[in-house]
Structures are given as structure tokens and as C-alpha cells.
Design a protein that fits this description.
Blueprint (H helix, E strand, L loop, with lengths): L2 H8 L1 E4 L2 E4 L5 E3 L5 E4 L6 E4 L6 E2 L8 E5 L6 E4 L5 E4 L7 E2 L7 E6 L5 E6 L6 E6 L6 E2 L16
Antiparallel strand pairs: 1-2, 3-4, 4-5, 5-6, 7-8, 8-9, 9-10, 11-12, 12-13, 13-14
Length: 157
């Protein structure tokens, strides 16, 4: 690990009364306001929002990225190192693989209803958006037009 990487990992930013670990990945605060998941440097980390030392989320591996909290705050969807979508409890329990293809699957985003996930997939050699239930069932392709459809975000109403 080089000095620049160490500096990025060591840096902490105090913003809006919340300590957030700064890294090259994304930071997401759960709706419960207690944990942070950072996909910086290929690890999923959890940290109390009140400060403290980030710790690896139990049940995850290096290379995991693209985290998304469920609106209810009880599940985290993420892109696993093997380009599959997983869901896990904030404490590392109930880790479940949701996609099982040989193609890329990534960038999950939960629906406001907490029932479905939208994600990108390269099935059939084109990048399209797909949806599935929070348990991985009922996977449905939602875009079919030419071009690359990536980086979905369900948004909030």
C-alpha cells in the first residue's frame, strides 16, 4: 500500500456532526443513522457514525463495492468481487447471493418500497437495467433499446 492510499484511508472528515471515513469509494449512511458502509479500496467497511475505527463488514471479501442500503435500513445490497449482486444484514449476518450469471451484474439500488432492487447487467453482451425482488427472485429486464444502460438509481418519491 503506497503513501497516497494510506493517506486516503486515514483521512476523516467531520461534516454535519458525523464522522465519515474518506476513501476512494462511496460512503453511505444507513437510514438507522448508526452505520456507514464504504466501498473504498475494495473493502466494505462499517463504522459508527459517531466516530471510531472502521472495521471490515463480516461476511464480505476484498473487491466488493457499490453498496446500497435498503430504505428500511435492515439490508445492504452490493456488487460482489465476482460481479454478482449480494444482500447482507448490517451486522454481517444473512449474506445471500442474489444473481447467478456468468455476466457482469452491478450497481444495485433499492426501490423506495424496500421490495425491489434495480441493477445493471451485461447479459447477452449488452448492458441493460434489470429489476428483482429483494430476495433475488423475479429478475426482469427493463431496458431493451440500443446503447449502454448503467448506473441505475431508483430515487425517492
Amino acid at each position: 500500500m503506497n503513501l497516497r492510499t494510506i493517506a486516503r484511508l486515514a483521512l476523516a472528515v467531520f461534516a454535519a456532526g458525523v464522522w465519515v471515513a474518506a476513501a476512494s469509494g462511496t460512503n453511505t449512511i444507513g437510514r438507522n443513522g448508526r452505520l456507514l458502509v464504504s466501498s473504498g479500496e475494495g473493502l466494505l467497511l462499517v463504522q459508527p457514525t459517531g466516530g471510531g475505527v472502521p472495521a471490515k463488514l463480516p461476511g464480505t471479501r476484498g473487491g466488493d463495492t457499490s453498496t446500497a442500503w435498503s430504505p428500511g435500513g435492515d439490508r445492504i445490497a452490493y456488487q460482489g468481487a465476482g460481479s454478482q449482486i449480494y444482500a447482507i444484514d448490517p451486522d454481517g449476518g444473512r449474506r445471500r447471493q442474489l444473481t447467478f450469471t456468468d455476466d457482469f451484474n452491478g450497481d444495485p439500488s433499492w426501490a423506495p418500497s424496500d421490495q425491489r432492487i434495480v441493477f445493471e447487467s451485461a447479459r447477452g453482451s449488452t448492458y441493460d437495467l434489470w429489476t428483482m425482488r429483494g430476495d433475488g427472485r423475479a429478475q426482469t429486464r427493463v431496458t431493451t433499446s440500443p446503447g449502454r444502460h448503467t448506473d441505475p438509481d431508483w430515487g425517492r418519491r
